[in-house]
Design goal:
The protein has 165 residues and is of the alpha+beta class. Helices cover 32% and strands 15% of the residues. The protein folds into two domains: 76 residues, Roll (Ubiquitin-like (UB roll)), CATH 3.10.20.30; 69 residues, DNA polymerase, domain 1 (Orthogonal Bundle), CATH 1.10.150. The protein is elongated.
Length: 165
């Protein structure tokens, strides 16, 4: 008796990422994280734990903050995705990115893209968050370098710069 292993067929999956249409060929259950990094060359999306615990791979998908290591690529079909690369415009950093640089919120860089996307999500809903609200919004993101003080200060500074207060 012959034994054959069945390999799932790759699917064509299209989505918009950072305002650009992308079409990839991937196995439906392949992780969105891997497709973004390997096929779309968006290496700002980082893998920390691969289990949805650290937030390093956080992106916005259809306006919702998600851990891309937990999302099968099939779920991204026709989605609108924003990664850290999509925040800057032309040669100018987004106010959050600049605040992270200015306030020392970025250390080794593994958690930074996810932290910034989580903060971006927060500020899009609440332009003047309290320190507690910042802490809650970033609670799904882990950092081993900064102790969070500089990260919280970076988000608060970005809020001040954005609202002029």
């Amino acid at each position: 008796m012959s034994t054959t292993t069945h390999q799932p067929q790759k699917s064509e999956i299209s989505f918009t990422v950072n305002g650009q249409r992308a079409t990839v060929h991937a196995h439906p259950m392949e992780r969105l994280l891997d497709v973004l990094r390997q096929q779309v060359n968006l290496t700002g999306v980082k893998e920390g734990c691969g289990e949805g615990e650290c937030g390093s791979c956080s992106i916005l998908m259809n306006g919702v903050l998600v851990n891309s290591c937990l999302v099968p690529i099939l779920q991204a079909n026709d989605a609108d995705i924003i990664t850290i690369e999509g925040l800057a415009s032309q040669d100018r950093l987004h106010v959050l990115q600049q605040a992270f640089l200015d306030c020392g919120g970025a250390q080794c860089g593994i958690c930074t893209p996810g932290m910034i996307l989580a903060a971006f999500h927060l500020l899009s809903k609440n332009p003047q968050p309290s320190r507690e609200e910042i802490g809650e919004a970033l609670s799904g993101n882990l950092c081993r370098c900064t102790g969070y003080t500089q990260i919280f200060e970076s988000v608060a500074e970005a809020a001040r710069r954005s609202t002029g207060r």
